[in-house]
Amino acid sequence: MASEEEINLLVIVVDVNPIWWGQQAQRATELTLSKCLDAVMVLGNSHMAMSRTNKLSVIASHFEDSHFLYPGKSWRMGDSCGDDASSSGDGKYELLAVANNLIAEEIRKVMSKTEVRGNSTDTLLAGTLAKALCYINRVSKEFEVGQEIKSRILVIKAAEDCARQYMNFMNVIFAAQKQNILIDACVLDSDSGLLQQACDITGGLYLKIPQKVALAQYLLWVFLPDSEQRSQLVLPPPAHVDYRAACFCHRNLIEIGYVCSVCLSIFCNFSPICTTCETAFKIQLPQMVKPKKKKLKQPT
Amino acid sequence: MDEEPERTKRWEGGYERTWEVLKEDESGSLKATVEEILFQSKRKRVTESHGQVRLGMMRHLHLVVDCSRSMEDQDLKPNRLTASLKLIETFVEEYFDQNPISQLGIITTKNKRAEKLTDLAGNPKKHIVALKKAVDTVCLGEPSLYNSLHLAIQTLKHMPGHTSREILVILSSLTTCDPANICELIKTLKSLKVRVSVIGLSAEVRVCTVLTRETGGSYHVILDESHFKELLMLHVKPPPASSSSECSLIRMGFPQHIIASLTDQEANAAISTSSGADLSLGGYFCPQCHAKYTELPVECKVCGLTLVSAPHLARSFHHLFPLQAFTESPTEQLQKDRFCQACQGELKDKSIFSCPSCCSVFCVECDLFIHDSLHCCPCCIHNQSNP
């Protein structure tokens, strides 16, 4: 059992790309954004109910910005207008009721106010994860030296990967690994190579959900237990991660490649000049073998 | 050896009145001054980046540790040797974290001789095990700078030209016992393009000053244990490459991790890098010769191909594209809400930091975290979406 001193912080990052969710609604599938957020609220409530010292944070990852759905700024500044509306009559634990109402209100604000520019269906997860890491860093500094705080991030991903954010994503993953923060991934639609690498490197769980309608069940079964309890449970096996690099010229995955020693770009074929940093390479020439001079035998 | 104008030593300057830094306010409390000092020390950690300078990413570093009688001195607790070895363990881990495709070797010197503790290798575990065992060594005799440098050169001179060759010496004794003229050795080091840096534990020694100046390294003497740690960590970042180092395309393999299931085939033997051979079900297969390895990065013993995985190369990217330092400004000038845009916390410090490209505002903790660990501005990443 966790000791009294340990604090578990769960940060849930929800991908709210409006184009992808809109397409889902048009196809009239059972999973809509509101049902997804219901499942997230169930997970959040369960996490907070597991122990008095557990903490929660929910971030929505939109096109060009990420918004903290919970805890909100106005809540922390002691704004009391939220409290009147939140007291629910069904005897629910007040913290959970406040959290749910806040999340619902904020997501309504985010979805109605944010402008939709362009029609890209990929979300910028790297920025949201970076903000989540900064938030975790601040929260862990706020406690005293003796208290341990264990954090993990759960990413609920809907749309596809964006290849442009590879480098930033890797930076975020290495920063999370250094701080011992697990990154779990719950993928709704298409497999994401970046998230598979993130989960493998930080030690989290990657799961692509077979049936979207049962999202709440998967969240509670797989992602609710924290890292110590996971060793006692039989969880989905780790996915096979493809760590092969993609060459810079054709974007093919290669098994043997040439790496520039200056800028570390990867090429599939040998070329005398590196296209990224424009250094000319020294080409190894085969060594000249001098023919041995044979001494002529002097006829005696 | 050409004579450089010597810097004035610290004792040659006037008295420093260090007590005048502390100023009391009206109520007699020192709180404001202490906070100011803490703030300044936090900011000192964010060092200036080199900018557009070519760095030596693949490094071959030899660490020379002095195990002579002076290491038994107790000015670092419990004694110099234990304290140094502990800090070197941290250094080894950080080194392989920041430079995953580099190699490290450790040499110890005592009793006028030098011997290799570990060979040049890319796996941190071997070094850490050896360092833990070395805590029990008896410190005796005099160190030999010549012998240790000579031993290091024997392996470094065979390394390919595009890698950076470095030696880091941790010298605590004020004397050295050399069999031959060290000036000749310094000339050899210069011709082999080896960069030697020294961290002194006692005092400045002239031969080290000359050695580091000629080879292009740095020489520092520690003040206390935390200063020692700082100086060691300075050597973790890749140094600027010397202009004469060659650049070439290195052939590398990117093996896949194959997880064989229990019903598939029998467990194959894998060539382990840490201890002999291991039996394992899955592993990394070399794309050229199909030899099996348990972990990366490694140099294939059968065909000589360097095997790495893509994240290893990605770890070094932040050295090549360093993040700009943020501009500092006083908090009072901020018109909008006083919230840090990364951690959503209130801005309580006296200065705020803004990113020069996206003008978002951050608090001092986030600024430190972003520059130390994250290496990318959270708000700039969002703006990248606009083509």
From TrEMBL, chain A:
Q: Which GO terms describe its cellular component?
A: transcription factor TFIIH core complex; transcription factor TFIIH holo complex
Return the InterPro entries for the record. Answer: TFIIH_Tfb4/GTF2H3, vWFA_dom_sf
**Entry keyword Endoplasmic reticulum:** no
**What Pfam family is a match for this entry?**
Tfb4
Q: Name one GO biological process term.
A: regulation of DNA-templated transcription
Tell me the compartments it is located in.
Nucleus
- Give the keywords, sorted: DNA damage, DNA repair, Metal-binding, Nucleus, Transcription, Transcription regulation, Zinc, Zinc-finger
Q: Major location, coarse class?
A: nucleus
Q: Name one GO molecular function term.
A: zinc ion binding
Record's function text: Component of the general transcription and DNA repair factor IIH (TFIIH) core complex, which is involved in general and transcription-coupled nucleotide excision repair (NER) of damaged DNA and, when complexed to CAK, in RNA transcription by RNA polymerase II. In NER, TFIIH acts by opening DNA around the lesion to allow the excision of the damaged oligonucleotide and its replacement by a new DNA fragment. In transcription, TFIIH has an essential role in transcription initiation.
Q: Which PANTHER family match?
A: GENERAL TRANSCRIPTION FACTOR IIH SUBUNIT 3, TRANSCRIPTION INITIATION FACTOR IIH TFIIH , POLYPEPTIDE 3-RELATED
Q: Which family does it belong to?
A: Belongs to the TFB4 family.
Q: How does it assemble?
A: Part of a TFIID-containing RNA polymerase II pre-initiation complex that is composed of TBP and at least GTF2A1, GTF2A2, GTF2E1, GTF2E2, GTF2F1, GTF2H2, GTF2H3, GTF2H4, GTF2H5, GTF2B, TCEA1, ERCC2, ERCC3, TAF1, TAF2, TAF3, TAF4, TAF5, TAF6, TAF7, TAF8, TAF9, TAF10, TAF11, TAF12 and TAF13. Component of the 7-subunit TFIIH core complex composed of XPB/ERCC3, XPD/ERCC2, GTF2H1, GTF2H2, GTF2H3, GTF2H4 and GTF2H5, which is active in NER.
Name of the featured protein: General transcription factor IIH subunit 3
Q: Which gene encodes it?
A: gtf2h3
From TrEMBL, chain B:
From the UniProt record, give one GO term of the biological process aspect.
Answer: regulation of transcription by RNA polymerase II
A Pfam family matched in the record: C1_4
Q: Name one GO molecular function term.
A: zinc ion binding
Q: Which domain of life is it from?
A: Eukaryota
Q: Where in the cell is it found?
A: Nucleus
Coarsely, its chief localization is nucleus
User: Where do the ZnF regions (C4-type) fall?
Assistant: 286-303
- Identify the keywords attached in UniProt to this record, alphabetized: DNA damage, DNA repair, Metal-binding, Nucleus, Transcription, Transcription regulation, Zinc, Zinc-finger
> Which GO cellular component terms, listed alphabetically, does the Swiss-Prot or TrEMBL entry include?
transcription factor TFIIH core complex; transcription factor TFIIH holo complex
Domain VWFA, residue spans: 60-202
Q: What family does the entry list?
A: Belongs to the GTF2H2 family.
Instruction: Please report the name of this protein according to its UniProt entry.
Output: General transcription factor IIH subunit
What is the species of this protein? Cyclopterus lumpus (Lumpsucker)
